[in-house]
């Protein structure tokens, strides 16, 4: 696709635009802590970003926004279906210790009785723009440089149900790109036409505030459950301060799972206290990877939170609903209809699915293995993990399967068709480096805000967007892992 302005930029304009954009980012909080001092805000740097907004077809952007409320409802309804979750994960939990520990917490909470029926979901559904003209790239066939826009297809990568990040920093990116486009000679009318406003920060913060109000105790706090090392604190602070702005009675505290274990208390009436303060909402920005649980103390903290009457974001059933295995099962014929009665909603959701395939032991799983082995470049193998950097691509898939000591190990993964995203040229701006003109691909995320109470829908809304872009040569990983950069859509 063509970039927002003709490239390359003249050297003087490039230098002026990049320097101005870096300063704008720092002035407007598009910042991250440094690798050297991940827990200190004494020294921060701008978060890496694309100098120009990346083109996204308006029709596909609107499609992604329109289906988000369907995904919100889908996650809630399947999370209430114990038989479905159990059936989906019964093989995975035999070989994946991390998912097994989460599932055991889910089972224990169900046996004891769920203390808090209200669920808060702050989801993000991630997509790429699939370019069918690139499908032959792995086999050395010619690749069309400029795809026809009407041929691009919106295909879901995953839906994130825990620690969906960059709603804070991403909200600021349209302002940065308006500045850069104006420096490149674009009119204000042009920038307003092509750069959509982004309300992700206010939507996510509003969801946190709404859940706090539903809890009904003015003296209770919102707890951000954070990682011990936290370079991405600025993104979280946007949400923290945004929630406090919504209601002056809201107070937010930040604790790791280790600190919650040491300083928390679960009372007999299931009230959760930390440092003597009652917890109304526990918002997880940690707890989605095994290293967040270095000892049994962190697992005990997670269990106590789930046993409490605090409103969780996500509750353990939402967390499990976001696993790759559940998403693979949802792509099978007839499954969506179990949870969405509206045929149009089913059609909207299904239209975003790429092919997904089971690796369960049996005929279907064996067929998947044969398919992958015969043409591995067409596929991605995914474990039950969040946070980026975990997927296995192309020729690495046969090696991974062949190196498994027990065939049952494959059931910890699912296989998905490899998406061939449209490529665009853009400048990558990173701290300590000159702007680099690069061939890049983008991933569009749409936030969703949902509050449910049993079968009752309290709140269901689409909540803004996030665009992240990375070099086309990079397989996996997000902004926090250093591979992707913040961006914003230039609608065409």
β-strand percent reads: 15-25%
The gyration radius over C-alpha positions equals 22 Å
Alpha-beta content class: alpha+beta
Number of strands: 21
Q: What's the shape?
A: globular
Largest sheet: 7 strands, antiparallel
Total DSSP helices: 16
**Averaging pLDDT over every residue, what do you get?**
94
Give the uncertain stretches in residue-range form: 138-144
End-to-end Cα distance, whole Å, is: 10 Å
> Percent of residues in helical segments?
25-40%
What does this structure look like?
The protein is built from 16 helices and 21 strands. The longest helix has 22 residues, at 58-79. Helix 2 (58-79) packs across helix 14 and helix 6 packs antiparallel against helix 8. Residues 138-144 have low confidence and may be disordered. By secondary structure, it is of the alpha+beta class. The relative contact order is 0.21. Strands 3, 5, 6, 17, 18, 19 and 20 form a seven-stranded antiparallel sheet that branches. Strands 7, 8, 9, 10, 11 and 12 form a six-stranded mixed sheet that branches. A four-stranded antiparallel sheet has the order 13-16-14-15, sandwiched between helices.
Layout of secondary structure:
Layout: H1 11-27, E1 31-33, E2 44-46, E3 49-50, E4 54-56, H2 58-79, H3 82-89, H4 92-95, H5 97-112, E5 118-130, E6 153-160, H6 167-183, H7 188-194, H8 200-215, E7 221-225, H9 233-246, E8 252-255, H10 257-263, E9 264-266, E10 272-274, E11 277-284, H11 296-307, E12 311-313, H12 316-321, H13 324-330, H14 343-350, E13 356-357, H15 363-374, E14 379-383, E15 392-393, H16 396-402, E16 413-417, E17 424-429, E18 436-453, E19 456-471, E20 485-487, E21 489-491
Parallel strand pairs: 4-21, 7-8, 7-11, 11-12
Antiparallel strand pairs: 1-2, 3-17, 5-6, 5-18, 9-10, 10-11, 13-16, 14-15, 14-16, 17-18, 18-19, 19-20
Helix pairs in contact: 1-6, 2-14, 5-11, 6-8, 8-9, 10-11
């Amino acid at each position: 696709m063509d970039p927002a302005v003709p490239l390359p930029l003249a050297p003087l304009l490039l230098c002026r635009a990049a320097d101005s954009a870096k300063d704008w980012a720092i002035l407007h909080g598009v910042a991250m802590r440094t690798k050297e001092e991940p827990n200190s805000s004494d020294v921060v740097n701008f978060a890496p970003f694309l100098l120009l907004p990346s083109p996204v077809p308006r029709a596909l952007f609107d499609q992604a926004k329109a289906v988000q409320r369907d995904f919100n409802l889908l996650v809630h309804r399947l999370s209430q279906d114990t038989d479905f979750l159990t059936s989906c994960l019964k093989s995975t939990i035999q070989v994946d210790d991390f998912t097994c520990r989460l599932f055991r917490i889910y089972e224990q909470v169900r046996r004891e009785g769920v203390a808090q029926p209200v669920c808060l979901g702050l989801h993000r559904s991630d997509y790429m723009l699939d370019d069918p003209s690139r499908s032959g790239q792995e086999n050395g066939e010619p690749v069309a440089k400029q795809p026809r826009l009407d041929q691009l297809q919106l295909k879901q990568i995953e839906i994130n149900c825990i620690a969906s990040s960059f709603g804070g920093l991403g909200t600021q990116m349209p302002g940065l790109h308006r500045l850069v486009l104006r420096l490149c000679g674009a009119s204000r009318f042009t920038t307003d036409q092509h750069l959509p406003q982004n309300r992700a920060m206010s939507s996510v913060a509003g969801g946190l505030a709404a859940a706090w109000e539903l809890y009904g105790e003015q003296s209770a706090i919102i707890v951000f459950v954070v990682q011990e090392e936290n370079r991405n604190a600025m993104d979280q602070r946007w949400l923290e301060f945004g929630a406090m702005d919504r209601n002056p009675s809201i107070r937010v505290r930040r604790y790791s799972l280790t600190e919650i274990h040491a300083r928390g208390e679960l009372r007999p009436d299931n009230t959760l206290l930390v440092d003597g303060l009652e917890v109304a909402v526990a918002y997880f920005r940690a707890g989605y990877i095994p290293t967040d649980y270095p000892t049994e103390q962190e697992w005990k903290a997670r269990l106590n939170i789930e046993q409490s009457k605090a409103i969780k974001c996500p509750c353990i059933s939402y967390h499990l609903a976001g696993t790759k295995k559940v998403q693979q099962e949802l792509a099978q014929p007839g499954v969506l209809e179990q949870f969405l009665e509206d045929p149009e909603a089913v059609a909207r959701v299904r239209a975003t699915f790429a092919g997904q395939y089971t690796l369960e032991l049996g005929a279907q799983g064996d067929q998947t293995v044969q398919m992958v082995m015969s043409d591995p470049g067409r596929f991605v193998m995914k474990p039950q993990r969040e946070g980026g950097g975990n997927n296995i691509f192309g020729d690495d898939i046969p090696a991974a399967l062949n190196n498994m000591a027990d065939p049952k190990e494959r059931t910890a993964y699912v296989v998905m068709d490899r998406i061939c995203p449209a490529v665009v040229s853009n400048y990558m701006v990173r701290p300590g480096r000159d702007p680099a003109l690069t061939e890049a691909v983008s991933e569009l995320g749409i936030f969703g805000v949902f509050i449910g109470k049993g079968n009752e829908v309290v709140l269901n809304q689409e909540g803004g967007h996030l665009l992240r872009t990375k070099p086309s040569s990079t397989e996996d990983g997000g902004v926090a892992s250093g591979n992707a950069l913040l961006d914003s859509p230039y609608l065409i």
